[in-house]
Amino acid sequence: MTRLIITNGDATVPIMEAAGLTQGARLCIWRDILHEGPLPDVDRAGFLDARAAFLAARMGLPEAPLRASLESREEMLGDLDRYSQVEIWLEHDLYDQLQLLEILSVIGDGIRSAPVAHVAAPEHLGLMTPDRMKAMTHHAIRMDQTHIDLARRVFAALTAETPESVAALVGEEDHWPLPFLKDALRRFLDELPDATGINRTERLALYGIKAGHGTPGRLFAFVNETDDPAFLGDTSFFEVLEGLARCAAPLVAGLDIPFSNALFEDDDSYRAFVRQAGLAVTPFGQSVLDGTADAVAENGIARWWGGTKLTGHECWRFDAATDRLFRA
């Protein structure tokens, strides 16, 4: 019987192959940025429809092939008794931990059909040497019904219409058998706006510009070095930067070349975007950093956080200093 390996992206696969880990295995790449876009509380087909529609709009790609790709993942997890073992290779960061929740929720009762192990990597898989990745097999955690029940409970909280259930779970004193999950959820709460109307990623971007990281490329590197563990890809971060620059009251100036997915079709265009110099924090952006202005009150917001739709000039917010949710 073959093994099933589930992992977070295409960059990990060549390292796995060099480490000799993929021999006799079927690969399932879980391609979805679950910290962006809607995570609706609907049946599974409706959930995949919503994700495909979001990803198509976000990436500028046709929806039908994306929907088919999501469906193919479901098919791989449909009958686990086809496999001698299922291995879930995922990292400690928010991007991967949300994927872990979805994967375990989809596996569900299938946990009884085949052994399932989670290789809980405390560092980024795509940056490992083959030898280091091979050694990661010692970090494998055997999954059981306890892990499935926890994943289902947390994923249900993520798909709720408010972030209250997630905040309550993070506040629990209980030990969780998934070692990186609670910290990842706490980081996700930090992606809600704070009292000044910006989230942690946006605040780090403004700090980075103030510190002299005046190009999108250098700023992206600064944010990922500062935000540990880093979880944002370049497209996700550049969308954040675009949002700070293109709004009624901009917080960032100097982004003369706008970001779009079309930049990835041409190396010269991408280089021109990431190297454009002159990013600066506007006076309004400085007022937000100083705590004397509110970006949401001024510009409004239109964004999903899990199953919570943040819209208008009043929304759910999170105070990281006190771990407090509030609306304003």
Description:
It is globular and about 60 Å long. The chain has two domains: 188 residues, 3-Layer(aba) Sandwich (Rossmann fold); 128 residues. A hairpin with a 4-residue loop joins strand 10 and strand 11. 44% of the residues lie in helices and 16% in strands. Helix 2 crosses helix 3, helix 4 packs across helix 6 and helix 4 crosses helix 8. The chain contains 14 helices and eleven strands. The protein is an alpha/beta fold.
Write the layout of secondary structure elements.
Blueprint: E1 2-7, H1 12-18, E2 25-29, H2 44-59, H3 63-76, E3 83-91, H4 94-107, E4 116-121, H5 130-135, E5 140-142, H6 145-158, H7 164-170, H8 181-189, H9 200-210, H10 216-226, H11 234-245, E6 252-253, H12 267-275, E7 280-281, H13 283-290, H14 295-299, E8 301-305, E9 308-312, E10 316-319, E11 324-327
Parallel strand pairs: 1-2, 1-3, 3-4
Antiparallel strand pairs: 4-5, 6-7, 8-9, 10-11
* Helicity level: 40-55%
Largest sheet geometry: 5 strands, mixed
General shape: globular
Please compute the radius of gyration using only Cα atoms: 20 Å
Q: Please give the alpha-carbon distance between the first and last residues.
A: 55 Å
The average pLDDT is 97
What is the name of the CATH architecture of the largest domain?
3-Layer(aba) Sandwich
Give me the oligomer status: single chain
Could you tell me the CATH topology label of the largest domain.
Rossmann fold
Low-confidence segments: none
Secondary-structure-derived class:
alpha/beta
Number of helical segments?
14
